[in-house]
Amino acid sequence: MKLNKYIDHTLLKATATNVDIIKTCKEAITHDFFSVCVNSCHVALVKEQLKNSEVKVCSVIGFPLGAMSTKAKVAETKQALQDGADEIDMVLNIGYLKSNAFELVTEDIALVKKEMPNHTLKVILETCYLDAEEIKKASALAIQAGADFIKTSTGFGTGGATMEDVKLMQSVIANGKTKIKASGGIRDTKTALAYINLGVDRIGTSNGIAIVTGIHTEEDNY
């Protein structure tokens, strides 16, 4: 098992500069991470930095609240793909979910997926705001709408991934295709391995280097 290939090396801070983004890309190439995950304005820069590597480009959409209009999410997706994104991590509309507006939740995801039939779509549930039934419902709706992955967290909510939440998400996957990405608060090798052993296919973290080397530098928030 190549631990590095489970990692989406992530920089989503509002204060991230171009210099910070380039540094993150260089780190991803050095450690051969699966992807670099950034806000959509940085996708073109990341694509350019990674052009001679196998590292993929991942863009978040409707981040971090998920409360943008569906048209805005679709437009952001189109632009990110045009700029070179290989994968999209979109935030589910949590307010719609809590309003029991399930058709709107599904449509929001399905219209984004429609723009990217051949690209990987991960749907962020933001599990810290959901109870067990809501996590299961959100997972089911995302799968129904065509999500390739369901993902725990943005890293910007009140909490990140938990083993319990991942188990709830797993309990809904019946198609054998949908995968799980755990993110938020995964900062060391032991924790990352625990999630992988549970069956998670991807880890979103800004602590990827610490995870693969066991060497901790400055503490990060994602």
TrEMBL record:
Keyword hit for Zinc: no
Catalytic activity: 2-deoxy-D-ribose 5-phosphate = D-glyceraldehyde 3-phosphate + acetaldehyde
Localisation: Cytoplasm
GO molecular function, one term: deoxyribose-phosphate aldolase activity
EC number(s) stated in the UniProt entry for this protein: 4.1.2.4
Pfam families: DeoC
Gene3D superfamilies, A to Z: Aldolase class I (3.20.20.70)
Annotated keywords: Cytoplasm, Lyase, Schiff base
InterPro entries, alphabetized: Aldolase_TIM, DeoC, DeoC/FbaB/LacD_aldolase, DeoC_typeI
Location (main, coarse): cytoplasm
Involved pathway(s): Carbohydrate degradation; 2-deoxy-D-ribose 1-phosphate degradation; D-glyceraldehyde 3-phosphate and acetaldehyde from 2-deoxy-alpha-D-ribose 1-phosphate: step 2/2
Active site as annotated: D89 (proton donor/acceptor), K151 (schiff-base intermediate with acetaldehyde), K181 (proton donor/acceptor)
Enzymatic class: lyase
SMART domains membership: DeoC (SM01133)
Entry function: Catalyzes a reversible aldol reaction between acetaldehyde and D-glyceraldehyde 3-phosphate to generate 2-deoxy-D-ribose 5-phosphate.
Similarity annotation: Belongs to the DeoC/FbaB aldolase family. DeoC type 1 subfamily.
NCBIfam families assigned to the protein according to its UniProt record, in alphabetical order: deoC
The name this protein goes by in its record: Deoxyribose-phosphate aldolase
Organism listed in the record: Lacinutrix gracilariae
